[in-house]
Amino acid sequence: MAATDWAPSPDYVAALMHTRTRGRDSIAATAARELGRFTANTRPTLTQVQRLIELAAGEVASHFPGRSPCTPDLEIAAGAAVAYRAAQLVEASLAPERTNYLGSAHEAYRTLADDAIRALSAAVIAGCPLDAGGS
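Above: the chain sequence. Below: its structure as tokens.
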């Protein structure tokens, strides 16, 4: 099973970080309206978030090489782990100067992702067979 089969949608990531779904034109003026989803006019854009989800999915999958989440619950857990890592990458790309601050969004998403990946990896390795051609 390809990581994209269980990777979250951009809307899933947007649900974690709704304040990042503001339209570009609304940020500088009055209180920005949160769109609740990424678009071509948000910062980051929908395309940027899709790329970060792909990067995060590859990283998560690398923790259980040759295997895939083999139950619906593990697929949900994998999607959550990818969403947390993608959210962390969004924060790192938009505010790189804040990546080392305790209590920052970047740090919070990193902790969530690391914990989720650790638990997911152990469960997949212990309970899921090797994929066809896996090693």
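The chain has one domain: 3-127.
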